[in-house]
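Please produce the structure of this protein holding NAP.
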Amino acid sequence: MRKVMIVGAGGRAGRAATAEAVRRGHAVTAVVREPARHQDLAGPGVALVAGDVTDADALATLAAGHDAVVAAVYDSSSTDPHRFFVATAHALTDGLARAGVTRLVWVGLAPLLPTSDGTLLGDTEGYPDEHRGFFLAHAAATRAFDTATGLDWVALSPSGDFDHGGTPSGGYATAPGDADSRITYADFARALLDEVDEPRTFRAHVGVEAASAP
Ligand SMILES: NC(=O)c1ccc[n+]([C@@H]2O[C@H](COP(=O)([O-])OP(=O)(O)OC[C@H]3O[C@@H](n4cnc5c(N)ncnc54)[C@H](OP(=O)(O)O)[C@@H]3O)[C@@H](O)[C@H]2O)c1
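Below is the modeled complex.
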């Protein structure tokens, strides 16, 4: 049994990660901004607590004693995603260092993944350009993790995108960036928790897709 803190536990990726961690028998600290909106998360194996991912002091206190932290955050109300992701990355690096937690499993963004020819998915011809500002903001977070010493971070993202309505395959495979690739949140959560239980990737961003084509 491991002790895992999941930040953004009320979101789609965070909920899937929480369910997968519970399925594995881990003790989960589920961090959300407003616990009253996420009471359904609390239960056997899950302690629901209030916390903001941009608050280093709160993260330092909450993360103490955990084996790893999973962060799956996106602030849809923010008009400045760059500011949000930089503040998030700095709070996580600072807070986790003070808590003595070295493993961070970060939910990243597919456009930042290299495709099979090495071109970043977001730079490939025809890739929608309207979200470029958002993915550059996400990139600032991983750059900040990379400058932190002593943080064994890994970023996982879909190789392409999430499959919102599909049936989980029950597994996953790592894969380069590919706009057509899909993975359900449940399969994605397996990859997140595998990097908690048996860390294989360090200081790198890896894409994952369903074990078999949906
Ligand atoms: N193709 C791709 O690569 C792809 C596609 C989709 C998403 N993503 C990435 O996956 C990650 C998770 O996405 P998702 O689909 O799970 O999003 P989601 O369902 O919108 O969940 C995001 C969660 O972040 C939480 N959050 C926002 N600001 C916070 C703060 N200051 N402190 C603590 N929690 C905060 C929200 O909490 P509240 O419940 O309090 O609002 C929400 O539960 C994001 O980084 C997103 O960019 C990647």
